[in-house]
Amino acid sequence: MQDILTIVLAGGMGSRLSPLTDDRAKPAVPFGGKYRIIDFTLTNCLHSGLRQILVLTQYKSHSLHKHIRDGWSIFNPELKEFITVVPPQMRKGGKWYEGTADAIYHNMWLLSRSEAEHVVVLSGDHIYRMDYAAMIDAHKQTGAELTIACMDVPREEASAFGVIETNDKQQVINFKEKPDDPASMLSDPSKSLVSMGIYVFTMKTLQDALHQDAELESSSHDFGHDLIPKLIDSSGVYAYHFGEETGRVAKDCYWRDVGTIDSFYEANMDLLEPVPPMNLYQKNWGIRTYEPQLPPARTVSSATGNEGIFINSIISNGVVNSGGSVHRSVLSSNVRINDGATVADSILFDGVSVGEQCQLQGCIIDKHVLIPDGTVIGQNPVEDAARFTISSKGIVVVPEGYQFS
């Protein structure tokens, strides 16, 4: 698709995911044992034939840059393919990116250099699989100036999203960002149609809208709050229903904004369901990532005779379970479970070592944490709160490199 330029917005702070985002950008947060969050968006681009990609970064972006360099240097510039990381260039008066639209406005020079006729704008911090090619085809067929990917959610949950109203031709006639009283769908009053933050613009429409928005001092320079409501009045804006894709990707219609500790935890746990709501095993839509060369995971009988046990868990390369018991958990690479330790309903990032006789329940342990023998986490909320972050649903988060006293 040489006429398509793709822009991935990957510069958000992700403050609600703290402490997982204290030292990394939200799109770089590990997910599912071996991936990073941004891998899902980039994989969708790869399988959809989008090979001209700009990734706009900003906040604590070193690990994100490194991951893209190591895992995504796969395109051929001789075929005009590229994936380019673009931190703030200070071309607009020395400012940082100040909104989703402002981030692209700062890089208008890249748009002007492109020969593309259409621009796909994506977020780098959602978990889903989608064939963007089908949405682009629909955009071209309707002659739309802007097409917005959307999905239906229960009306009581819609206030967290941009809510869309359409006519019978799927043309958008109203858009409100995070309204207190969301409009319901005509076909189902119990649900609302919401934006997924996935857009296809004609190049000229996007450039004109960004220039106009930049001149408004009252604007927050955000697509949902500012650009889209104005475009509805002046341009052809259409809705594209997520799941309309056919053929290449399974219609699981799974999409998650993992913007909080609880939503991040629940999305990881979704992968452990007997039939996961998102299929990571579809052979023609594999999720690409960077993975170091490590030995296979293994279990070991401990000196005391305990057998290492894994039950309903995701186990990455390099994991060694020496006489411990792991239940319904997600383990990243190089995790070590020692004799008599129990890990349940938890997520362990790279290089975590769980000492002998430890008990972990409902935890997220960031990378390179060495947990001393006999430590108990996730069973005493008062003690846990004195040391760690606890989510609204009781998930205990131990930050990267935490030193136990």
Automatic annotation (TrEMBL):
Pfam families: Hexapep_GlmU, NTP_transferase
Residues in Glucose-1-phosphate adenylyltransferase/Bifunctional protein GlmU-like C-terminal hexapeptide domain copies: 295-398
GO molecular function term, any single one: ATP binding
Enzyme class: transferase
Site (described: Could play a key role in the communication between the regulatory and the substrate sites): Q58, W96
Keyword terms of this UniProt record: ATP-binding, Carbohydrate metabolism, Glycogen biosynthesis, Glycogen metabolism, Nucleotide-binding, Nucleotidyltransferase, Transferase
Family: Belongs to the bacterial/plant glucose-1-phosphate adenylyltransferase family.
Function: Involved in the biosynthesis of ADP-glucose, a building block required for the elongation reactions to produce glycogen. Catalyzes the reaction between ATP and alpha-D-glucose 1-phosphate (G1P) to produce pyrophosphate and ADP-Glc.
Subunit structure: Homotetramer.
Name of this protein: Glucose-1-phosphate adenylyltransferase
